[in-house]
Amino acid sequence: MIKKPLEEKSVESKPSTSRRKFLTGATAAAAGTAIAGFPMIAKGQTRPIAMRWQSTWPSKDIFHEYALDFAKKVNDMTGGDLKIEVLPAGAVVPAFGLLDAVSKGTLDGGHGVLVYHYGKQNALALWGSSPAFAMDANMMLSWHKYGGGKELLEKVYKSIGANVVSFPYGPMPTQPLGWFKKPITKPDDFKGLKYRTVGISIDLFTGLGAAVNALPGGEIVPAIDRGLLDAAEFNNATSDRLLGFPDVSKVFMLQSYHQSAEQFEILFNKTKYDALPEKLRAIIANATEAASADMSWKAIDRYSKDHIELQVKDKVRMYKTPDSVLQKQLEIFDGVMAKYSEKNPLFKEVIESQRKFAERAVRWYLDTQVSPRMAYNHYFAPKKAAAKKS
């Protein structure tokens, strides 16, 4: 049980056509196909465009399911004109190799998170791996679409020569502090701890004194089992349960600022995406937003079920992360922002854009959104026994 309440993606020649002209035309068509990388849909053509994708998730993770959900939406909405096949992490390249593989055209596209590309350009981690100036993931997606984030992301990818088109989508709930051998009660408990995280969160937990190791999702539990890690965070009750975290730990710390506003990323090879007919590009854009909403609804359903299953079936003890640790995270990230802003003008530009958007968006949210705590307690908290009459 929770020990502390939780707060607030045949040509027919005419009889008059000479054989020579026909062959010349066929050769030119073949050359055009080679340039585009896959056959374009032409008038009267029935052959679909096929794309081979890879996710950055193991096949058993719900995140890979989200990738399959997106592909199905696109496949269905295009009526079979475009068919995306999604392979799990490692099928073609390692999880952290997705960006290079898509950029080079080894893969046509992929499903992952921007923070996995942090090593190439640290500004990419700002799409979710930070306190995000108090924004949640849905607000971050609002900033991306309406607050200048989309243009900034294109600029960031251009800075590293990445030949990709990116669609952030799928708002993630606040991620847990993670799995530990014993409860975390204060910031100093991280000193010397062998801990797994990714992106700018590496800087956050290093600042807390942890020895940080960045590993993809499928490698975390085996590392804990072998003693290579003392503790780790991944993402949510469902993913963590499917990946086997309850088999190696029974202490689950909830709430953290290290990834409180993260989203997924749909990634296309830009050359291949730009060669698609305009109609298919429009379908992809709309399918992404539809998948974003559906993912968030599915997450609420599945995560809440596994939140209970972890406690009831797996006998996991859950604790709220102490406020002292949360406050320390914010203080450390102030230093991280200053350090990277000084070294990287793009990092600074993204930070300033997010901060400007968050100042009004979060204020609006806090001023208008009623807290669910009172209503939840009214309906579901144990009722006190009526006082006995004297």
What does this protein look like?
The protein is of the alpha/beta class and 390 residues long. It folds into two domains: 46-171 and 262-302, 3-Layer(aba) Sandwich (D-Maltodextrin-Binding Protein, domain 2), CATH 3.40.190; 178-260 and 315-366, D-Maltodextrin-Binding Protein, domain 2, CATH 3.40.190. It has 13 helices and eleven strands. The strands form three sheets. A five-stranded mixed beta sheet has the order 2-1-3-10-4, sandwiched between helices. A three-stranded mixed beta sheet has the order 5-9-11, with no helix packed on it. The protein has a three-stranded parallel beta sheet with strand order 7-6-8, with helices on one face. Strand 6, helix 6 and strand 7 form a beta-alpha-beta unit. Helix 8 (237-243) crosses helix 10 (278-312). The protein starts with 18 loop residues before the first helix and ends in a 10-residue tail after the last helix.
Summarize the structure.
With 390 residues, the chain is α/β, with parallel strands linked by helices. The protein has two domains: 167 residues, D-Maltodextrin-Binding Protein, domain 2, CATH 3.40.190.170; 135 residues, Periplasmic binding protein-like II (D-Maltodextrin-Binding Protein, domain 2, 3-Layer(aba) Sandwich), CATH 3.40.190. The chain contains 13 helices and eleven strands.
